[in-house]
Amino acid sequence: MGTTQLESVQEPKYWHLKTVLSEALDSDFAVGAVLPNERDLAARFGVARATLRQALEQLELEGRLHRRRGVGTTVAPPRVGIAVSTAQHDWTGGVADEAWQPIDCATDTAPAAVTAMLDTSAEEQVHVVRRIRVTHGQSVAAELLYIPASSVPELSAIDSPSGPARARSVLRELHRLGLEGQDRSVELGSARADDAKELDRLPGAPVLVVTTRYFAAGGTAAVSVATYRADTCRLTFGDSGALEITHDEQARQAS
User: Strand pairing of 243-245 and 235-237?
Assistant: First the structure.
């Protein structure tokens, strides 16, 4: 990384510095490499340390850097590549079961927005399955799956009253229902305390919230609210309309 003086630009100085640093990360540093200290970087780019910190914070937010006390600032690995598609209809095995790990299942009322999508009453109890998605040993998403009792009519109250076993029982019954389709929306959100704990993030960290409605028998059979780490996942829409999360390196090669 050579000495570079920033020219006068219309955008904020830290934002332009972030772009310059990002290009340097691609060309001059390997994954896991430790960046020079703030004083050296600020001198090299001819900026105040406050400006440099803003740029580094933005790159950390975007998942390009990891800043760890006692280690310094290191180059983060590429974003994790995960498929988010209709393959998840197979609740009982295959790729989906390998990715999503059931944690627990409880009976509770759903949030108002979910109740509206399920077309149930505000007082109606639904099954709430909590799962986490693990890729390459890293937790990348936490999900709450809301399933009304009408979608799993054969579920036994005796078998597996709680925990992962209960969650798997509910998912097996949902699979038997035979889902007919889905729709999905994606928005930027902030990590709630429980999701942040599952994802090893601080509460309020930026996340991508993927809400999916699953259809069967002319109605909504289940609603999934999955929270993905915004710093490790990239969501793209393919020609087929299926939602995928692509690898950063592939995206750079395609651009």
Answer: antiparallel
- Residue 42 phi/psi, 5-degree rounding, is -65, -40
Angle, alpha carbons 127-129-131 (nearest 5°): 175
- CB 130, CB 164: distance < 8 Å: no
pLDDT tens figures, 122-181: 999 999 999 998 877 778 889 999 999 999 988 876 666 678 888 988 998 888 888 888
- Cβ neighbors of 95 (< 8 A, separation 6 or more) are 83, 87
Prediction pTM value = 0.69
Round to whole Å and give the CA distance between 105 and 17.
47
Hey, what domains does the chain have and what are their CATH numbers?
Answer: 13-75 (1.10.10.10), 82-254 (3.40.1410.10)
Nearest to 127 by CA among 97, 86, 182, 168: 168
Q: Is 208 in contact with 186 (CB distance < 8 Å)?
A: yes
SS (H, E, C) 76-140: CCCCECEECCHHHHCCCCHHHHHHEEEEEEEEEECCHHHHHHHCCCCCCEEEEEEEEEEECCEEE
d(CA 87, CA 107): 26
Radius of gyration of the chain (CA): 22
HSE at residue 170, side-chain half, CA atoms within 13 A, is 30
In this structure, the strands spanning 72-75 and 243-245 are unpaired
